[in-house]
Write a structure and sequence with these properties.
This protein has six helices and two strands; from the N terminus they run αααααβαβ. The mean pLDDT is about 90. The chain has a two-stranded parallel sheet with strand order 1-2. The longest helix is centred in the middle third of the chain and has 20 residues, at about 50-70. Helices cover about 50% and strands about 10% of the residues. α6 links the parallel β1 (about 125-130) and β2. α1 packs across α4 (about 80-90). The chain has helices spanning about 5-20, 35-40, 50-70, 80-90, 105-115, 140-155; strands spanning about 125-130, 160-165. By secondary structure, the chain is mainly alpha-helical.
Length: about 160
């Protein structure tokens, strides 16, 4: 797997994780990316605060998606083990603060997501099949995943794009 593909997955996770928090679209009831969260996390995770925020949001998003999808399907927040390990290594070995910086605000996050998204497709409320997990490295699949979330956020509905095994 190329680092560029993994970087896009990581970027999508951070953007959608940020937008899904309670201060934005409230898909999950967390506040890991709010300023007050840093004050709470820094004493415990002084060197890895951004990583703790990422993993907190990742778990919240994973749980929500798992509640709405069948066992055995994959989604942005639950990928095959080897992909998860590669992403973990990318995050762990990133230089500086974190491999994919947190957006400053909702509009910046939506703009960045729109740049990654496919245009001209219609996405459904709830679970939406995007393709096969074997194609996860495809730029088209990543754009479709970004497009589904972008559509959901802009039209104020929850969508759960998934890949079949």
């Amino acid at each position: 797997m190329t680092e560029s593909y993994l970087s896009k997955l990581l970027q999508l996770r951070v953007l959608i994780g940020y937008l899904g928090e309670r201060a934005n679209f409230a898909w999950w009831p967390t506040a890991f990316y709010e300023a007050s969260s840093r004050l709470f996390l820094e004493p415990v995770f002084s060197k890895t605060t951004a990583l703790a925020q990422y993993h907190g949001v990742l778990e919240a998003a994973r749980r929500l998606h798992d509640e709405h999808l069948n066992v055995g399907s994959y989604h942005l927040f639950r990928l095959p083990e080897e992909v998860e390990q590669d992403l973990h290594l990318l995050v762990q070995h990133s230089t500086g603060e974190f491999a994919s910086p947190t957006p400053k605000n909702r509009d910046e996050a939506l703009g960045a997501l729109d740049k990654l998204a496919v245009t001209g497709m219609t996405f459904n409320v709830g679970p939406t099949a995007i393709g096969s997990i074997k194609d996860i490295q495809s730029a088209d699949i990543l754009r479709a995943i970004a497009g589904a979330y972008s559509s959901g956020f802009s039209q104020n509905f929850q969508t759960y794009p998934y890949l079949v095994g």
